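Question (not urgent): is this output format expected?
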Amino acid sequence: MEPRKARDRKRMLRALINDITIAKGREPRQLLLQIRWQGGTTEAVELALLPMRPDAVRYPQGIVARIRQRPSISMTTRSRRASTAKA
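Got this back:
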């Protein structure tokens, strides 16, 4: 038996599903899907949305706090260090 193609699977699902209702979930970044099948049966599915891109790439607060505690090095200090290293 051949594996079903994605197009065929989508076509079968469209034939089986009567309608889908999408609502906000109880938690932030969560969706609630109410699926009503052709036979009248309903099913509720909760989905967690991916975090927003800025939140996904943000450094943890602990790392940010450690960096902020370090003494800053000015450009003049860097150039002085470079010139003394050459001598």
